[in-house]
Specification:
The protein is an all-alpha fold. The chain has two domains: 194 residues, no CATH class; 71 residues. The N and C termini lie far apart (115 Å).
Length: 325
Amino acid sequence: MSSELNEQEELDITNYEELTYHKTSLVQRLLDISDYDVQCEKFIDERFEHHFIITDKDLNPACVPVVEMEDPDGVNALSRSDVLTVLDSVRKITEARDKVIDILQKVDDETERCKNTAREIMKTWPLWAYIIVFVLAVVSIVWSIAVKSFLAFLFLGGLTALISKYLISKLVKIFDIDRKKNEIEALFYNTLPQLGVSFSDAMADLKSLNMSEQMKWGAEVVGEDMLDTEAIDILIGYIKSRRADNIKEAVNKFDLDGHHQRMEIMQQEIDEATQIQAEEAVKQTAYAEQTAKNARATAVASSITAYNSWKTSKYAKKSYKTIKS
């Protein structure tokens, strides 16, 4: 891996061995164990920032769709077919912006995936650690069989688990950290630079779109808050279904329908809250009835007990008099 990466030095990339890490002494590694997770996260963040480079690129006018821009002040006087043409032009602009935003989201997801992979690498154990645990487990089993004691098996098994958790895990953190850093470095080296280029290109395209005359025109036609592909599709639906004759009516219809939807959601939430309160009231009533029923049953049981005690006492006195006579 190192020799392959070194061949790319003419691309103005720092030597891979220098990028990897600065080897530390054994004493320093022992000191780092106390905050191992913090040191690992710090290393991942540092290497991520080193490889994921975002550059400020020039504007890219080619990403802006070419559309015929009508006078925004006169769009409401256009015919239905012309209004649909205008809205279709606005949709092309918002669709181009959505594609760029999708690229940015994909890059963000991929960079997060790389970070999570690096974190998983830091948690892995090398083969020699598993071999030690396996040998300890085999020795425990064989010894337990030899002495024919289940208690010995439990003791040695617990001892193996403690050794694995508190000793071997620390040995892994001390002696395997260099391999993990190398693996993370290779992962970032082979993935993040290209992602940085893609992110920079997408940001330049987004900036070009937002600063374009087409985007400003679209905001004037439908309003800045309506400059969204899904919203434009709804406006087009209003015009096609003849529920609106122009953009102004379509936008008003959109706001009215949105208000009705919000009111329906609020009413649904109120109904659900009322239903929950009614169910709670029913539960409380049932609980009160059950409590009263239990109290009555307790009182009856107490009365029966008292009566039986009185009856027993009466018979005892009667028997005593009979014996005495």
